[in-house]
Each structure stands twice: as structure tokens, then as C-alpha cells.
Amino acid sequence: SISNVSRSDANILVTVNTNTHEILLTSIPRDYYVTLHSKGAKDKLTHSGLYGVNETVTTVEDLLDTEINYYVRVNFTTVIRLVDVLGGIQVYSDYDFTAQGYHFNQGYNYLNGEQALAFSRERHSFASGDNQRVKNQQAVIEAIINKVLSAQLFTRYTSILDSLEGSFQTNITESEIN
Q: What is the pTM of this model?
């Protein structure tokens, strides 16, 4: 359940430049040793999630000396549901590899939700391990953004959000989304 308190395993800061219409994805390693905001103690960033999403947000704000206006918290099932609701996504892979029974070719791959999750979780197939995993996570996010912004889906964003109700947490209000 999205309401379960759990580790913050994939921490990605999304910076949106509304003037240039560019999006920057910055991944912060889950094992990065940080000072937890409310605890004042050093620990891995992933453990901040055990104290709630606000602890992760404020810890990352402290780490990067920046203000985070909004957050979205998802879990594995959210990724699967979102990609499936979108009708799949087109993701670029830097490598040929197999993960969780799925084979991914170097180049573009059309993925359903289960495949997108497997693609974004794999690290053992790569010499660079977790570094490639975060690149793959970013590739999945980029593919989701591209699909949502496509002409065929852009006007259906409210029905997409409705179908995902209860599977993500955010501090973005409904009026801000609309």
C-alpha cells in the first residue's frame, strides 16, 4: 500500500524550468550518507523514508540547500499501473540485458508496466551497477512524461489521475493540477 511507511529507495529531484520548458532529473543515491533533518543524526538517505515522506523531503532540502515545492511518492505497483494506464511506454536502453525474465535490447523498447519496473530496478547486469539503474529510472520517467504530454493523452490527464487514485502520495492540490 502507498500508505505504508517504507524506505526511500529511488530519490529523484525533478526541476522544471517553466521558461525554457526543460526538465532536469537529478538522482540522489539511496545509500548517500546524510544528516536526517528531524533526527540530526547521520544515516543513509534511504532510511529517511522510515520517518515519513516529509523527512525525506526536508533531508534532501537540507542536503541540496534548496526548497522542494512539491513531492510525489510512488511505489512499485504505481509504476506498473501508470505505465499500463498509459498503454505502455517507449524506453531507450543503453545496453542489451535480461532482468526478471524480460529481455531488453540496446535501443528503443516498448514496455508494459511490469517490464518498465523490471527495467528500472535492474543493476546486477551492469558494470556500473547502481549508476546505470538510476539512468534507467530516469529513462522510464522521461518516457512517461513524453507519453503523458503526447497529443493523444494530454487531454485525458484527469482520467489518468483518477485511475491512479490511492496509488500515489503528493502535496500538490487538485486545483494546482487542474
A: 0.92
